[in-house]
Amino acid sequence: RKEVEQDPGPFNVPEGATVAFNCTYSNSASQSFFWYRQDCRKEPKLLMSVYSSGNEDGRFTAQLNRASQYISLLIRDSKLSDSATYLCVAPSLYGGATNKLIFGTGTLLAVQP
Amino acid sequence: DAMVIQNPRYQVTQFGKPVTLSCSQTLNHNVMYWYQQKSSQAPKLLFHYYDKDFNNEADTPDNFQSRRPNTSFCFLDIRSPGLGDAAMYLCATSSTRGANTEAFFGQGTRLTVV
């Protein structure tokens, strides 16, 4: 099993739609998680951090379910500018400290006019 | 201001000719990572430094080496680049010392092998 797995893409949604991505992780000891956004040929940029049960920032909501070991990202009222690849990131414990970040395969979102 | 800087942004090298990519950071983060990202794929961790402690991923080819002479700088050396090594190479940093442990990325170096 991969350490971090994401929904396969691409997701094609109309403007204004609500879309949700899921991500599962295998390391039950992981404490913090991240969603990154990556535009074509650019570096990943942090979208949201998730340290407890969830986090909300405007149209974006991230939720963490430790019992089931998954993280979700919800995007409400999708905009054309939301089109990108969304990467789920979970830490992999090494030497007792959280210091290795593993990326999921990414989910491509295409918002259509 | 850029906090993680990679040089060069674009690198063209000949097949088999050693090449070095560089990364510097102004964040004083103790962890530095090198990822390889090929087209339509997620970033793949090659290795990372936890302070001075070097940690190689099991499936990273021997052709890839790294150096971290001090906290601020980290280098990726590709000893004999092959065509399959053409990719975007991303450097990232993070800290284990505070509450925020997210990674910050440089803009990447796009490597072409001819």
Low-confidence stretches of chain B: none
Radius of gyration based on Cα positions of chain B:
13 Å
Q: Tell me the series of helices and strands of chain A, N- to C-terminal.
A: EEEEEEEEEEE
Instruction: Report the mean per-residue pLDDT of chain A as an integer.
Output: 88
Based on CA atoms alone, the radius of gyration of chain A comes out at: 14 Å
Please give the number of β-strands of chain B: 11
What is the assembly state of the chains in this entry? heterodimer
Largest sheet of chain A: 6 strands, mixed
- Structural category of chain B is mainly beta
The coarse silhouette of chain A is: globular
The H-and-E topology of chain B, N to C, reads as: EEEEEEEEEEE
Measured by DSSP, the beta-strand proportion of chain B falls in over 45%
What is the straight-line distance between the termini of chain A? 37 Å
The helix fraction of chain A, in percent, is under 10%
List low-confidence stretches of chain A. none
Topology diagram in text:
The complex is a heterodimer of chains A (113) and B (114).
Chain A: E1 4-6, E2 11-14, E3 19-25, E4 33-38, E5 45-50, E6 54-57, E7 60-65, E8 70-75, E9 84-94, E10 97-103, E11 107-112
Chain B: E1 4-7, E2 10-13, E3 19-25, E4 31-37, E5 44-50, E6 53-56, E7 64-67, E8 73-78, E9 87-94, E10 104-105, E11 109-113
Parallel strand pairs in B: 2-11
Antiparallel strand pairs in B: 1-3, 3-8, 4-5, 4-9, 5-6, 7-8, 9-10, 9-11
Describe this structure in words.
The complex is a heterodimer of chains A (113) and B (114). Chain A is mainly beta. Chain A contains no helices and 11 strands. Chain A has strands at 4-6, 11-14, 19-25, 33-38, 45-50, 54-57, 60-65, 70-75, 84-94, 97-103, 107-112. In chain A, strands 2, 4, 5, 9, 10 and 11 form a 6-stranded mixed sheet that branches. Chain A has a 5-stranded antiparallel sheet with strand order 1-3-8-7-6, with no helix packed on it. In chain B, a hairpin with a 5-residue loop joins strand 7 (64-67) and strand 8 (73-78). Chain B is 0% helix and 51% strand. The radius of gyration of chain B is 13 Å and the shape is globular. The mean pLDDT of chain B is 93. Chain B is an all-beta fold. Chain B has no helices and 11 strands. The A-B interface holds A 32, 34, 41-46, 49, 51, 87, 89, 91, 94-95, 97-106 and B 31, 33, 35, 41-45, 48, 50, 53, 55, 88, 90, 92, 94, 96, 99-108, 110.
